[in-house]
Specification:
The protein is an alpha+beta fold. Helices cover about 25% and strands about 15% of the residues.
Length: about 350
């Protein structure tokens, strides 16, 4: 019998069996199957056996940690590049179409704490569509009409002279004054303003004895669109929100208030062969205003913002976010009583 290079003499093996059977003290015992298994495992293991009731964490897998690390890096990059959108993904919502920044506005940062802090300034915040031949106009004429419509918005809502209370001469020059009722509206609204004849429906003005702009930046967000209207006219619709930061006109107050004015103006660039008018002017199809902190029940012809220390609208008024632009003007103005004053959730 091959024993792998070693042998036990027969007499030794017989002696072993006799002593084991007789129970001779000190006789070696044949190891049990379980003992042999334990011994074999101990020989195969290179480290010490684990203790009783000890926890050995599972072996980490390199691929999993690589993927986790990659996700973390991408998330940090997104937060750095687009913090506002990342905040929304992470559940920090400021409402409206942009998150608010904590803190009160100051003279150095008059839009702080509002979505307008991240809006563009002036006409840069107004999106322009591509021109194409429409109605009676060629592509070039449509492009010119869009540029003239944008210029009207600037002259009516961004011109520093108009904002400090002067008459909007340049903006008025763009209106077709041969349109029935326009001359009467313009004369009455500036001389004896009322709810129905209010210059603020088209033009932004502040009483220079009451308030002035806090700096020269006006934030905007909105867009122009167009379609073919009646008698082949090119009908341009402007839906734009203007945000004005102002301070008291008198004294050295550094308290900043904001007036938010959303206007929807539909301008009809008419075919001169079908509609009487002055070349280069447009007719007004419709115009309406949704303003916040411009003065509730105000018929002065000027925005009269309320400052922090003054009382606001009544608690029973409808609460509206003036920065929210997901709601159309039709929805915003629906069922609204002209005598009611809404409460802005923020300015």
């Amino acid at each position: 019998m091959d024993t792998g290079g070693s042998s036990i003499p027969d007499e030794e093996w017989e002696r072993f069996l006799r002593e084991a059977e007789a129970g001779t003290p000190g006789a070696p015992e044949e190891p049990s199957a379980r003992a042999r298994m334990v011994a074999q495992r101990l020989r195969e293991e290179t480290g010490p056996p684990p203790g009783w009731r000890t926890h050995q964490p599972p072996r980490r897998r390199g691929r999993i940690w690589y993927v986790v690390g990659l996700v973390v890096v991408v998330a940090l990059l997104v937060v750095a590049l687009v913090p506002g959108r990342a905040a929304g993904w992470l559940g920090f919502h400021g409402g409206g179409d942009a998150a608010a920044t904590p803190g009160a506005p100051t003279l150095d940062d008059p839009f702080k704490g509002s979505p307008a802090e991240h809006w563009a300034a002036g006409t840069a915040g107004i999106t322009m569509p591509s021109a194409r031949a429409t109605g009676w106009m060629s592509e070039k004429q449509v492009s010119d009409a869009l540029d003239s419509s944008l210029a009207f918005l600037s002259d009516a809502g961004l011109d520093p002279a108009v904002l400090r209370g002067e008459r909007p001469v340049k903006a008025i020059a763009a209106l077709n004054t041969k349109q029935p009722g326009i001359k009467e509206y313009l004369t009455t609204s500036f001389d004896t303003p009322s709810r129905t004849n209010d210059p603020l429906l088209l033009f932004s003005r502040f009483d220079p004895s009451y308030a002035r702009l806090a700096g020269d930046v006006i934030k905007t967000r909105g867009a122009l669109s167009y379609r073919e209207g009646e008698r082949g006219a090119v009908e341009v619709t402007a839906d734009v929100t203007f945000v004005y930061a102002v301070v008291r006109a008198s004294g050295g107050s550094d308290e900043v208030a904001r007036t938010i004015a959303r206007r929807e103006i539909v301008m009809s660039w008419d075919d001169p062969d079908k509609v009487i008018g002055t070349p280069g002017t447009f007719s007004l199809t419709s115009y309406r205003l949704d303003a916040a902190n411009g003065g509730c029940e105000n018929t002065t012809g000027y925005f009269r913002p309320e400052f922090e220390k003054e009382p606001g609208p009544s608690d029973g008024a409808t609460r509206v976010d003036p920065y929210e632009r997901g709601t159309s003007m039709d929805e915003r103005m629906a069922d609204r009583d002209a005598a009611d004053c809404d409460t802005a959730t923020r300015t």
